[in-house]
Amino acid sequence: MLQQFKESAAYIRSKTNVQPNIGIILGTGLGGLVNEINIIDEIPYEDIPNFPVSTVESHSGKLIFGELGGKKVVAMQGRFHYYEGYTLQQVTFPVRVMKLMGIERLFVSNASGGVNPDFIVGEIMIQNDHINLFPGNPLIGKNFDELGPRFPDMSEPYDSTMIALAQTIAKENDIRIAVGCYAGLTGPTLETPAEYQYVRNTGADAVGMSTVPEVIVARHMDIPCFAISIITDLGVPGKIQKVSVQDVIEVAGKQEPKMTLIMKELISRI
């Protein structure tokens, strides 16, 4: 698989002269950050050797290269999920390739369900930890020693310096934010009331179907990570309602400009 990473990176280099130092993965309904990027090149996933192809309706499926906040960036407009039938190694394939492209930091966004009773719909949560509830780990199997150690440390999955700076930026712009722990599950079903309670009992504040695998792989390669969630629905007793994907996209879209401001400003200041 290491050879596949290198083949993909070589193809991408042949299509763009941008050498990114920031990688960005955009979640459901959260693609608006792309509008802030001074786009130089776009590469459809389907053109990249060995790359998976996004099958989710709200995910565009292309790599965006350009400038944001004075930094060279590569953004995934559309990510991959375990529930699409991909392995966790395939889900995280682009993170490996971005490392070979030269990224030094990874920024991730997602839409998630809130299990913290203090949360409201539309809450913006900066992640300071996560719980891997996927039935596996993307590092299972052969270790790529030139990318990272067999047993990577996960004592700081999300970079504390970037979290503190993001909190400052939010305060400066009067944006309400929370900081909390994200639990990653497979999906594609949303959780039952008992499952929401189970997730809360594990110590999580929010639950979603992404982010954890990508961050595990990024940290394996010693890439500092920053992740931000928009709480699109509540899994709290007495507040659970039927939710559709369109509901998720609608709530995410309303709060997305605030998330974009925080991420853009954070990228410009680091």
Report the structural category: alpha/beta
| Number of H/I helices | 7
Helix content: 25-40%
User: Which runs of at least 5 residues are low in confidence (pLDDT < 50)?
Assistant: none
Domain count: the total is 1
Q: What is the first-to-last residue Cα distance?
A: 32 Å
Strand order, main sheet: write it out: 5-8-7-6-9
Shape: globular
The CATH architecture can be named as 3-Layer(aba) Sandwich
So, the CATH homologous superfamily?
Nucleoside phosphorylase domain
Mean pLDDT score, rounded?
94
Rg for CA atoms: 17 Å
- H and E string: HEEEEHHEEHEHEHEH
Strand content: 15-25%
Text of the CATH class = Alpha Beta
Instruction: Please provide the count of β strands.
Output: 9
The CATH topology is what? Answer: Rossmann fold
The main sheet comes to: 5 strands, mixed, barrel
Q: Can you give a write-up of this model?
A:
The protein is an alpha/beta fold and about 270 residues long. The protein has one domain (about 1-270): Rossmann fold (3-Layer(aba) Sandwich), CATH 3.40.50. The chain is built from seven helices and nine strands, in the order H-E-E-E-E-H-H-E-E-H-E-H-E-H-E-H. The chain has helices at about 1-15, 90, 95-100, 160-170, 195-200, 210-220, 245-270, and strands spanning about 20-25, 40-45, 60-70, 70-75, 105-115, 125-130, 180-185, 205-210, 225-235. It has a five-stranded mixed beta barrel with strand order 5-8-7-6-9, surrounded by four helices. The protein is globular and about 55 Å long. The two termini are about 30 Å apart.
